[in-house]
Amino acid sequence: MGPSRLTFVLAALSALSLAGAADPAPPAPKAPPEATVTVSAEAAPVAVTRTPAPVFILEAQEIQRLGVRTLADLMAAVQPGAVMPTGDAGAQTSAFLNGTLSRNVVVLLDGVRLNDPTALSPDLGALSLTGIERVELILGPASVLYGSDAIGGVIALTSFGRGGEGTHGQAGLKGGTDGLRGASARIQVAGGAGWLSAGGEALRQANGFPGDTYHQAGGFLRMGARLGAADLTAFYRNAGQTASIPFTTTGWPSMRTYQPDRETHARQESWGASLRWPLGPTLLLEDTLQALSGSTGDPVDLAPRQQVLRDFRRTEDQLSLHWTPAPGIRLSGRLEGRVDTSHARNYYDPDTFAATPYRGEGHDLAGALELRWTLAEGLDWVAGLRRDGAHRDLTRLDTGARTRVGSAEAGTWRTGLNWTLAPALRLYASAGQGFRVPNTVEFTLNAQAAAQDGTAYPLLPERSRTVQIGATGQFGGHWEYRLEAQRTRISDLLAYVYDTSFAFPPLFTSHYANQGGIRAQGVEGALGWRGGGDLAYGWDLVLRSQETRDLDHNTDADRFGAQNTAILRHPFFTAAASAFVQGAAWRADVRLAQVGPRYDVNDTTYAVMSTGKPYRELALGLSWDPRPDLTLALRGEHLLQPRQTVEDWRSGRYDGNGDAALVYGFPAPFPRWTLSATWRY
């Protein structure tokens, strides 16, 4: 869609909204639901209607109604086509926000990043929603606030906090097909100057194939106290899972092999404290200190019961100062420091050709400034600057040799305008940069290559430039709409370059290099309707068209070259529709999504191919409150996916069926029904 056509559509929708608001005959338009919600994943919390970026917010009630268990499940429901799981529950799941790469997203827990430094991209399938009260999705560059990796967007998780006065909570049980069973509990106690929030969850399910099971468990504890004018919060969280990954490709020529004992596990544990202290009428100090540790066991193909372990530990501090010198003006400064220590085993000894354990250390320091200024009633301007510096050190554990394997610096900025023209109309536009500093894995592999041939393989940060424009509003008292467009260009792209020398003995000089760039652009529109009285009902329709183009490998001769992952798994078109009917004590929901054709990699020939047929996802939900403190819910998920046998997968019987796999070579989740009971007190 060209700029002139987009401008015309925005203007037409805006005029329609204002016309509906000005007509005295219909009821006055209600305020948009977003007007009462604040975005906490900003320099300081602001109303959604004052942030110049696309924002999606899901509160605890909506998360529970969707029946999701991991961040991957939730994101697949709210961003169909942007989340790609390689199988059923617990499988590796990547997010491709705004058409960018899976490594271009940052996941936050209470403002502090969860990204694993031993992995190239965050695995949403390994992140449990235990103890999560709220999830925010902010699309577009957020590196000014959160630094490296925040090119495509930010997923911010917020834990349960103080809650209302007194004691309250809930307990739940669930069961379902494929042996699904689980239990959860939560309690919140608040009174006087202190509060406590705690809970836990455990779940087990067979994924439909023999020996393919999924286990998830976790718990959290948060407590707070008011010390004079200051608020002090302490927190602890522990969550983990074990999942089978029985689908693998081995041998030459390659063939599919089913190994039911092949499994992976992941666990993260975090603890820390935060302080919120008003220093005066115009000054507010915030500080968060957190320690985070995580471990992952990756399966070994030749010995399924064995695993290659990766682990990391992170200590991070964020110190922010907010100054409001006058009404409508706020200046925020932030200073961040982070130290990562990780252990892995992907460094190859050039003499023995064996994987050698190593310790990687990452040190990051950043400073940022952001100005938020209300230029006129309803018109907000935001501008920010940031500077990051980082270095990575590597120590071989067998010899103790320590080296500085890489350093990088990056600066970034963003600016945007948000214009609330009426209670039911918001226009916004923003532009900014993002960046991604190479992590320990990438620097380590390049150090390995340099040890082989004496050649230096320096790395620079990836950089991006993004422009966004959008409008949200209501008209006619019942209609809601949203229209957004964005374009992102990533340069200095980090591509993995395979060693093609076929030397003997092998050189192991595969490495990362900054080469080429990609462009991602798209338009998304949403239209919804709400109505009814005692019997309420409504529907929503979302359409997204996007393109991700490899700017340097786009000819017939080399379009799928060393950077082919830049264009994989980005659907050209995605559509989603949902509807609900709600009475005094019950509610029924239906959700249907269609993910269009896209490029993927054949799992046996490794040739880039088009998936051809679309992938469809159907979910149904019915809940009933027989009494005010009890909810019974029945949910059906993945209802259009065919139930495959092991032989079906091995033979490729369903390879041409678009509903059988969202990622080529991995069976889609099977149809599943869940019955749950939740008691609130």
From TrEMBL:
Pfam families xrefs: Plug, TonB_dep_Rec_b-barrel
TonB-dependent receptor-like beta-barrel domain location: 235-635
The keyword Nucleotidyltransferase appears for this protein: no
Any coiled-coil regions, as ranges: none
Domain TonB-dependent receptor plug: 49-154
Membrane topology summary: Multi-pass membrane protein
Family, as annotated: Belongs to the TonB-dependent receptor family.
PANTHER family the record matches: HEMOGLOBIN AND HEMOGLOBIN-HAPTOGLOBIN-BINDING PROTEIN 1-RELATED, TONB-DEPENDENT OUTER MEMBRANE RECEPTOR
Protein name as it appears in the record: TonB-dependent vitamin B12 receptor
Chain's gene name: btuB
